[in-house]
Design brief:
This protein has 7 helices and 5 strands. It has 176 residues and is α+β, with helices and mostly antiparallel strands. The protein has a 5-stranded antiparallel sheet with strand order 2-1-5-4-3, with helices on both faces. A hairpin with a 6-residue loop joins strand 3 and strand 4. The longest helix has 27 residues. The N and C termini lie close together (10 Å).
């Protein structure tokens, strides 16, 4: 998944002219630009950590999976949240402590691993269906640190959007 900063006006214009967004996504994602936050395959596991079990579909915390706007006519699924929702999302992400995140991570490991596939690295072994062997406590700690690193990246990127009074566009791509 790639996340891009966009003003509310940009988001509205992308709805009217999805080809403009498609061209931007093709340019930015393929170049792995600094203009975006690349969550790689960690976005689904991040969604699990960011959302409480009873609020998996509620914005702002469900922003990785759904938005206030869904863009039609693109080659890959994309959606966006406006600046007010991005601000609330950033604030709520910052309020999540490591204890809460680790508890959700461990609970996800125990109960929901097959629901959150990611084919690469330790996270893939944890959240995916490709487990080759049981993970050691050291592997589990390393996987949590890897996921926490992606979360820090997302927190900083979201704070940049908030500092510019902007929203966020999320694009899930396949095989880039």
């Amino acid at each position: 998944m790639a996340v891009l900063i966009a003003t509310d006006a940009d988001i509205a214009s992308y709805q009217e002219e999805p080809a403009v967004l498609e061209a931007l996504l093709n340019r930015v994602i393929s170049a792995r630009s600094d203009e975006m936050c690349n969550l790689s395959d960690s976005w689904d596991a991040l969604h699990f950590l960011l959302t409480s079990p009873d609020r998996r579909e509620e914005l702002p915390m469900a922003a990785l999976k759904k938005g206030e706007v869904t863009f039609r006519g693109l080659s890959d699924p994309a959606h966006a949240i406006y600046s007010d929702t991005a601000r609330r999302w950033s604030t709520e992400m910052d309020a999540l402590g490591n204890d809460t995140l680790r508890e959700r991570f461990d609970r996800g490991l125990a109960r929901r691993a097959a629901d959150y596939p990611s084919p690469r690295g330790l996270l893939g072994r944890m959240w995916g269906v490709h487990a080759m062997r049981p993970m050691s406590p050291r592997d589990i700690d390393e996987a949590f640190r890897e996921l926490a690193g992606f979360l820090d990246l997302l927190r900083h990127f979201s704070a940049r959007a908030v500092a510019h009074a902007s929203g966020l566009v999320f694009c899930r791509w396949e095989d880039w």
